[in-house]
Amino acid sequence: MRFIHTADWHLGRLFHGQHLTEDQAYLLMEFLRMVTETKAEAVIIAGDIYDRAVPPTEAVELFDEVLAKLLLEKKVRVFYIAGNHDSAQRLDFGRRIMAGQGLFVRGSLTPSLEPVIVEDAYGPVYFQLFPYMEPAGVRAVFGGDEGWDFDAATGRVVEAGAACIPQGVRSVAIAHAFLAGGQVSDSERPLSVGGSSNVSPRYYRSFSYTALGHLHNPQRAGADHIRYSGSLMKYSFEESSQQKSLAVVDLDAQGKAAVELLPLLPKHDMRRIRGYFDDILRDRDRYPASDDYLLAELLDTDTILDVHGKLETIFPNLMQIDRPNLNSRSALADAGQVRRQQSEAELFAGFFQDMTGEALTEEQRSVFAETADGVFRREREGKI
């Protein structure tokens, strides 16, 4: 069986105030072309289809268009799950009806972990769908210990899902989680403010292939057959050096997975340039004009008037200008740079100490973490 593994589309994303829907639509049309050219029999989308729980109308319309082409024109099966950015309940809408058209969805975690069985020339392949899940949600459905972290809670569900599949058959797991050892990017929201959100890859080793979502950099996760596809496109300048791709997976008769990465080439790339202002302004050989999304790092130490306006004539999609040498003379700017690199928990701990003169106790840290996680959960669900 041949299928395509993708994830983290983040439809409806804003980048420096710019709507990325047009760029996402361009890449998804390329994706549809690749589905045809590879003769894929199925497509897996491993969560974070949307960038937020209540996505803009144009993002929903784009996803609807892509699904229609996959199911009605190309006649391929589609599997997708909810990620931490998605609304599980919204994604679940109509899933029982759509299953008859070859669309298999699991937005919310349910007590039933019945796999989807698909036949190919070599026999059945069992697909097990694990949506994004937090420890509290797992306890609500399966029971369990109040002290469970992400690893224990995920292990409970994945082991239960694996037990629903006969031994010796070919199987595919679809999950949205942060597996231990993964390479992160700054465009990914942490799954937990307090404690560890890491999950051991060992839970997924019994599956022939595991299609993961959440981390934006394409990578293996503990084994060659456990893999993140990476995001649809670059969503931060930290990702500028990454090559986004689709994973084309061939599952043979014995369940061995062969993976080929097909590059995704965006309409506008995301790039960084570095140099002195006059050189960038005049040297077109070294700094060619471009409509890519751009971060310019200027090495000048002096103030320059209308930097953005002058550079924008050459780089119309200039998004950000950094002045590290200018900022280094400002203690306030240095402090701001440090704060941008800190987590929510670190920022609050610093604020608390500045206000009270005392360090946070472990109990106070735990209360803050629980409160912050609750706020982020309500935000994902569209309740704030």
Gross morphology is globular
CATH architecture classification name of the largest domain: 4-Layer Sandwich
Share of β-strand residues:
15-25%
Terminal residue distance: 43 Å
Total number of beta strands: 19
Radius of gyration: 23 Å
State the name of the first-level CATH class of the largest domain.
Answer: Alpha Beta
Low-confidence stretches: none
Strand order of the largest sheet: 6-5-4-1-15-16
CATH topology of the largest domain: Purple Acid Phosphatase, chain A, domain 2
Name given to the CATH homologous superfamily of the largest domain: Metallo-dependent phosphatases
Describe this structure in words.
By secondary structure, the chain is of the alpha/beta class. It folds into three domains: 2-263, Metallo-dependent phosphatases (Purple Acid Phosphatase, chain A, domain 2, 4-Layer Sandwich), CATH 3.60.21; 270-329; 333-380, no CATH class. The protein has twelve helices and 19 strands. The chain has a six-stranded mixed β-sheet with strand order 6-5-4-1-15-16. A hairpin with a 2-residue loop joins β7 (116-120) and β8. α11 crosses α12 (362-380). It is globular and about 70 Å long.
